[in-house]
Amino acid sequence: MTEFNRLQNAHNNQLVVGTSHRDRVFVLRGDKMGLFKTNDDNSLEYELTVNNLQTSSGQVLSPAKVMLHQQDATMIAVNPNDPRQISHIDVERGKVVADYNLYGELAAKDIAPISKYAQTTGESTYAAVANNAILKVDPRQSGLHKAAEGSM
What we know:
Methylamine Dehydrogenase, Chain H, 4-stranded antiparallel β-sheet
């Protein structure tokens, strides 16, 4: 039995299938992320578990929304405890490398690629949906707020 399966009182809450490396599947269960690969016979095989996802400030991160980004090298996650905060997870290292806010008090309701094939490219920007706004988010910007200038 894998470590991912031994979690008590937890259930899978997110499933993300890779777009660039089609043989990878990510399953999130609470603050844990399981990585599976697809075999030649199209069955899933467990590879590893990333335990104790945490924000850069050390808070437990059990993402409400996730999206693979930049050719599946990073994952964007919305923190359900503070939906104003978005976490940038380096999938290869299995840890949060940056946390930032959209803009002011805006809370992210959802996140999406900026264009149809953006996830399969090195595109850095993505879209975030708030109650009354759609924002273009650019994590490369300096400062705590990452909403790009102008509108989409």
